[in-house]
Amino acid sequence: MTMAKQKIVMKYGGTSVGKFPENIKDIVESYSKHYSPVVVCSARSTDTKAEGTTTRLLTAADEALTKGDYISIIEAIRDDHVNTSKDKIRNNSALLDELLAAINKECDLLEKFLSASQVIDEISPRTLDSIMSVGEKLSCMFMAAVMNDHGLPAHYVDLSRVIPIGYDVSKTGLDKEFYSYLTAQLVEAIKAAGDKIPVVTGFFGVVPGGLLNGVGRGYTDLCAALIAVGLQADELQIWKEVDGIFTADPRKVPTARLIDRITPEEASELTYYGSEVIHPFTMEQVIRARIPIRIKNVMNPKGNGTIIFPDFESRAGTETPLHPPIAVSELSSPLLAAISSQPKMKLPTAVTTKQNIIVLNVHSNKKNQSHGFLARVFDLLDKRKLVVDLISTSEVHVSMALHSNLSEASFKEALVELRKYGSVDVTRKLCIVSLVGKEMKQLVGIAGKMFSTLAEANINIEMISQGASEINISCVVDETDALKALNVLHQRLLVPVMTTST
Ligand SMILES: Nc1ncnc2c1ncn2[C@@H]1O[C@H](COP(=O)(O)OP(=O)(O)O)[C@@H](O)[C@H]1O
Ligand SMILES: N[C@@H](CC(=O)OP(=O)(O)O)C(=O)O
């Protein structure tokens, strides 16, 4: 009797599809010898995500509404996919013709769709989701063709209709019940691939409230996570252009080291406070199902990457595949031994910065107002959808750090309201510096060391806060000091952690 192959869900980001389609094909081929891969891709970006297909589609939607030139944007998307397909699909001309016809059909439909939106002068969140789906469709048609062109049997799976038209998205939010329903639908859709490797659109349908509003950019990570949960995969791999999660952003701190394992809580804090390596909703889903997440590099597939997992005693985290793929029986015991031999170190795990921060100070002028003061402040911010990243309080004073991607109109309104409670001042062009690490709970004096290190480097601290989780100590400094702060803290507080030789 042959054993079923272990399942791996592999997510490839837009820039990886844009720059390294052959690497993706090679990696999938290599894994498919021993494992059963499901490939999930985002929309192509030839250079940066900011200039990629999804951004272009959103711009085209804006242009259609403002009677602008959306057609030339669609033509640029069409040309990009047609030219790349001609360049990369070299072995099978029938396959290329089929792909070009499919690309043209998709772009023609999009043009008609936007023209109709212009006539009715409206693009609802649902319509915008449909427009965005074109990016992942084109990308996955292309990737499936690249694989088939090299004799790797692949099947394009379109998830844009995975939530049926009749499904009442108004009665539910993005809650547990919806995710369970969606997960079951995803598993059904993937079955269409049969024995071939599914190449699945990282766009998963028109969701309650709209995908862009509810999940935001980077939704493909979540899509891959839900597929991993539905298939009870052995590992979710997020392939990027960085070797994994580092002790600090490697572009900013040359001495940053690769972290070989990290907890979901730490990874969430890092993502939230400026080191976005994985979409925040992703972790919750897979960790609940005890599936490890591995961050890997498309340019260096032999590296072990960073594994995100709550603990190492459990089944899934210790039996996950390494690259190059080897049989599970060979893998389990050496990996277990390697993990148990690693010393437990009480150190911060990483340091990160989040730019474009505004600090808002409210000082209540009436002592007798302290009762309910904080409740009122947060209520009025909440009503205007102003999200507070950090907070530091006393009975009558509150300092809050907010990201500046807020609505200026709502912010101004909030200031007017807040002035009814006392004096208010606002400082802009600041930055949050966060030290993150699960071992910091037991590290006496770590906060003191953090602040004295910044003081020695002549960096003025505007605000200090320590999260309830105790795995994050943050402060706010001037934006111009961000890079210096990151480097001095890294140098002083992050002594070598276990690194993976690559
Ligand atoms: N602690 C960190 N570890 C790894 N990368 C980080 C960290 N902080 C910030 N980054 C940055 O996040 C980026 C994410 O990688 P990349 O694959 O390029 O992103 P994307 O998949 O969004 O296109 C890298 O360019 C890296 O410089
Ligand atoms: N294409 C979408 C979804 C996504 O996840 O992209 P990426 O994996 O390239 O971050 C976006 O740009 O938001």
From TrEMBL:
Leading EC class: transferase
InterPro entries the UniProt entry points to: AceGlu_kinase-like_sf, ACT-like_dom_sf, ACT_Aspartokinase, ACT_dom, Asp/Glu/Uridylate_kinase, Asp_kin_monofn, Asp_kinase, Aspartate_kinase_CS
Annotated PROSITE patterns: ACT, ASPARTOKINASE
Record key words, sorted: Amino-acid biosynthesis, ATP-binding, Kinase, Nucleotide-binding, Threonine biosynthesis, Transferase
Gene name per UniProt: HOM3
Gene3D superfamilies: Acetylglutamate kinase-like, VC0802-like
Family membership noted in the UniProt record: Belongs to the aspartokinase family.
Pfam families found in the cross-reference section: AA_kinase (PF00696), ACT_9 (PF22468)
Domain ACT, first and last residues per copy: 435-502
Function according to Swiss-Prot or TrEMBL: Phosphorylates aspartate, the first step in the biosynthesis of amino acids that derive from aspartate (the aspartate family of amino acids), including methioinine and threonine, the latter of which is a precursor to isoleucine.
NCBIfam families: asp_kinases (TIGR00657)
Cellular compartments per GO CC: cytosol
Matching SUPFAM superfamilies: ACT-like, Carbamate kinase-like
EC number: 2.7.2.4
Catalytic activity, as annotated: L-aspartate + ATP = 4-phospho-L-aspartate + ADP
Pathway per the UniProt entry: Amino-acid biosynthesis; L-methionine biosynthesis via de novo pathway; L-homoserine from L-aspartate: step 1/3; Amino-acid biosynthesis; L-threonine biosynthesis; L-threonine from L-aspartate: step 1/5
One biological process term in Gene Ontology: threonine biosynthetic process
Protein name according to UniProt: Aspartokinase
Any one GO MF annotation of this record: ATP binding
